[in-house]
Amino acid sequence: xxxxxxxxxxxxxxxxxxxxxxxxxxxxxxxxxxxxxxxxxxxxxxxxxxxxxxxxxxxxxxxxxxxxxxxxxxxxxxxxxxxxxxxxxxxxxxxxxxxxxxxxxxxxxxxxxxxxxxxxxxxxxxxxxxxxxxxxxxxxxxxxxxxxxxxxxxxxxxxxxxxxxxxxxxxxxxxxxxxxxxxxxxxxxxxxxxxxxxxxxxxxxxxxxxxxxxxxxxxxxxxxxxxxxxxxxxxxxxxxxxxxxxxxxxxxxxxxxxxxxxxxxxxxxxxxxxxxxxxxxxxxxxxxxxxxxxxxxxxxxxxxxxxxxxxxxxxxxxxxxxxxxxxxxxxxxxxxxxxxxxxxxxxxxxxxxxxxxxxxxxxxxxxxxxxxxxxxxxxxxxxxxxxxxxxxxxxxxxxxxxxxxxxxxxxxxxxxxxxxxxxxxxxxxxxxxxxxxxxxxxxxxxxxxxxxxxxxxxxxxxxxxxxxxxxxxxxxxxxxxxxxxxxxxxxxxxxxxxxxxxxxxxxxxxxxxxxxxxxxxxxxxxxxxxxxxxxxx
Length: 537
What we know:
Helix content is 34%, strand content 22%. The protein has helices spanning 8-23, 26-32, 51-61, 180-185, 194-201, 244-251, 268-274, 308-318, 346-349, 354-368, 384-409, 416-426, 430-450, 473-489, 517-531, and strands at 40-43, 46-49, 67-78, 94-103, 108-118, 121-130, 141-149, 161-165, 205-210, 257-262, 277-280, 300-305, 342-345, 376-379, 455-459, 493-501, 504-511. A hairpin with a 4-residue loop joins strand 4 (94-103) and strand 5. Helix 11 (384-409) packs across helix 12, helix 11 (384-409) crosses helix 14 and helix 13 (430-450) packs across helix 14 (473-489). It starts with 7 loop residues before the first helix and ends in a 6-residue tail after the last helix. The relative contact order is 0.10.
């Protein structure tokens, strides 16, 4: 059905635009959207502002499924009015088109567009797309339910739902590790991992198994097989990895808790990118049985939440004798409050982007002027290049021992970026690994000494989440230099969403002495309460 009053040239433009969408003709689609910074496009993921942002999103989206336009409704909004700097006396007609699309595979969608005649040609100045209802977002979830697995009916976490990173064993299900070939060959697990079982015993229910970067060997959050999970805070940006699936599930409200892992920043990075709370626990504090390893010397279990109160509930349960039946016997220090003293590592700040450093400086100034000002002192962490080189060598050697045999038997089964990391890892010699382990010892000892009576504080990552179209090599290198020290020393680290930089979240990372995980969450909540809304943003 079509409204009879629609102008012929507008209908012609609409039909041409629809053909371009179905054909995924990016040049034609770019030309249909009005140039400039005021053009708008929104959907369920959020709002894109400006022609360039819309173009960048479209380049990654791919085409739409086959469909037909079932209805088009037209309403004139203005005749010859001025709707932008390019309008002249013959331009300015503005019209609203609302169309219903019927997909051949089932389901219907809705497109709402504001068109304007500019330089004699109809162009879209604002659009909103309501897609057909998906069964599930396969970029986020491997399997999902409501619930996927019921927890205890009572307990301190009752009513909360969990997205489990696809590295943990769940009895009766396979571990997929972000790779379809690995998933196909895996055998169903016989026993549920303790980290999962602890949450179920506390009353939390599993919402589903969430995606991970392949073999957890990335911090970007993309996956060539299943796609890139959406960033719940910044439209068109990378979600952060390798715990991208749990992070996106929590940020988008699909789950309350993300059960994740952190080897070189895989909890802290997505937490920062998506405005979440993320805790990397003390190394070996939470058992890793039933978890597919990447590098055992650094792998840790942790959680992602939208708020500090929920993270405190999880930590209190899972890291205490009463809560966890499996937590190693290193608990104790977390029962005491950490000192209200902070250390600012200068070498880490050198990795931070200018706008983020400015926002962080404002945050420290606001804290210093507060009613409960903590003392700050600049410190030196040492050569970050040397730290990261040694860390990467040990990580790579262990990763190749864990997965090299499978990779040799399955050439071409992993994406190019991960394949290149494993190729480099395969070249590490035993002597190089031994030397790197020796180099890490004084680095870890120095960091442990720094946090013996204070807490490190610094931006979690260099800046806001990069767009999915960006070249991220430089960002990745800087990020890993910021995240590797805590991992090398086996220390707990929490990312707290305290900064906003150019409209996007950036976390503030706190690092404390080993075994003080519960106290670290309490300290982070105290800091967040002191900062308050708007401070440091």
